[in-house]
Amino acid sequence: MTTENTGRIAEGSQSVPAPVEAPPVSQELDLDASENYFNRELSQLQFNYRVLKQALDPAHPLINRLIFCCIFSSNMDEFFEIRVAGLRQQMKYGRETVGPDGMLPEQVLGEISRVAHEYITEQYDILNNVLIPEMERENIHFVRRREWTPAQAEWVRQYFEEEILPVVSPIGLDPSHPFPRLVNKSLNFIVELDGKDAFGRETGMAIVPAPRSLPRLVRLPDEVCDGGDNLVFLSSMIHAHADELFPGMEVKGCYQFRVTRNADLELEDDLEDLASALRGELLSRRFGDGVRLEVADNCPEELVQFLLTEFGLTERDLYKVHGPVNLTRLMAVGSLVDRPDLTYSGFSPAIPRQIRSKESMFDAIRKQPILLLHPYENFSPVVDLLRQAAKDPQVLAIRQTLYRTGADSEIVEALADAARRGKEVTAVIELRARFSEAENLELASRLQEAGVIVVYGVVGYKTHAKMILIVRREEGRLRRYVHLGTGNYHAGNARLYTDYSFMTCDESIGDDVNKLFQQLTGMGKALKIKKLFHAPFTLHSRLISLIEREAGHGEQGRIIFKFNALTETQLIKALYRASRAGVKIDLIVRGICCLRPGVPGLSENIRVRSIIGRFLEHTRVYYFGNNGHPEFYCSSADGMERNLLSRVETAFPIEAPALQARLHDDLETYLADNCQSWSLQPDGSYIQNQPADGEERFAAQLVLLERLTGKP
């Protein structure tokens, strides 16, 4: 299989900042020049847009296309909560920083507003004019108020009185009832009123928060419908019966809105009790500063301005939408509608022949190292390894890092079981895993109750490495078994994210992992590591060194990197230098990429592609040609400053020839994709690849699915 880009380029691309002219070819090229770098935030926006475009791709089933539209909303929520909030914080406290692209926070915010407004307008256009009509043709109906039959209207009235009215708390606005503190991303209504209430108050305005416990989408019973699947929005029910919330008063208007708030947590590095401090911060996350206001596009201008003032926002932060203000909740369609013909077909993740037998995982790993690619291959062997370790009387100790896993996972149960059986079990839990903090606090408590030694890693350095170390007595000596991964120990993620799992009993790797756990749980100077690269100590410098080695091979050099993001400047400059030396470089970067490819004299030997499909690409692989003696590394780390310089990460070598060949073939498969891949252009735009005339579609994820599971 060739590594050349196949196919032709599809016409059209998304909105990007104005192109910057390529720097002239020069031996004295300034690699620090701002025109050599794309802006991080704007690149992330473009990834979100590529996700949105999947909603238009007929290669995906219809309901999954709707889900892509919802995922775009979820991604945009987090983008505003974290990235936009961070830029606003810089300006608020006078701490503006300029990135390698040279843009000031004010400039970035202005460009974000322009591009985000364009993308969100397109999102609602896709929903209203493409997805909903196609669902109508499939007999799936979003029934609007004006379309309710008398029987449906009566059912809605009863549902409102029994399920909604008892839990809604309307808030009239007057001197004794100031504007309420509204929870981040909650659905709310601003209501125009006329008349006086029982106390003689004449406020003219009220706020109705929609209870978060209520579903945003409800399926109408078949008996009040004429067939098909009929769904009604909670917002429609509240609109229709808003007058019942204000008896005796006239409701002149009722309009949806939602505020997105700063949800990043700020913790000092010198905390005495990280868990207690985190519990306090989690309470404030729900009520951080506003960063975005979404309102229904029919909301009167005076009410819009009132809301902007209340949240301290400007027109730049305002998004008027033609439809529900929170499309993420439309994901519920997948569970409300039983239409398997409109969703991805199921498949059974494969279990390699090596571990299908009834022999123990320890026996299988001793025979040869194991490499699994999830979700095509089952995550269960990782769980089985821990389960068997928990029950095996020869196992003395288990150590594991946990970033995201879920308090009720089988992994957690296996660790707790091992501790209850008297084994020495240590869990290094990263409490600051964004948006999993509360779950990880619960996880820590549960493991401590079972007798597990719980450590919260190193303050100031998130523990992002994925490691399991099992110490087992065999024939009078101790042997270490290791699992290293590119993704989290989360069974749900393992069904949706592509990640590698590597299991080995290599003595050097086992010793390295043991030393890493010593550094995490104890104190002392960094220990000498034999085979692993580990951040924040050696990973960054070793990657730079290996890139420079390839540069020394000139046109015979070869580099393939696959990861989720590339932003770290020194890494990018090393890749630029390698390109100028003639090294052929392919970067498979799912999301953010600040490197500018294809620029003569700078990066003409670098190609960047992004794969977007059914599964979230999450594997991190580094390949170096090394003049015919290739080296492969899998890693927990992306090419970002935080991963390489301020987190605990690992990169681990894959040395078995058969596993190296397998990794190389996987990378070649991604590079041959001609329909679910997007090529980054020198001007910053992404263009979707398409098969050339007469060429068959080649979707990498579908090829891997069929190759590993036999399921087309």
TrEMBL record:
- Xref: CDD domains: PLDc_PaPPK1_C2_like
Name all Polyphosphate kinase middle domain ranges: 152-332
- In this chain, the stretch annotated as Disordered covers 1-24
Q: Which Gene3D superfamilies match?
A: Endonuclease Chain A, Polyphosphate kinase middle domain, Polyphosphate kinase N-terminal domain
What are the binding positions for Mg(2+) in this chain? R404, R434
The record's EC number reads 2.7.4.1
For molecular function, the Gene Ontology terms on record are: ATP binding; metal ion binding; polyphosphate kinase activity
Q: Which Pfam families match?
A: PP_kinase, PP_kinase_C, PP_kinase_C_1, PP_kinase_N
Family per record: Belongs to the polyphosphate kinase 1 (PPK1) family.
Q: Tell me, what does this protein do in biology?
A: Catalyzes the reversible transfer of the terminal phosphate of ATP to form a long-chain polyphosphate (polyP).
Protein name listed in UniProt? Polyphosphate kinase
Record gene name: ppk
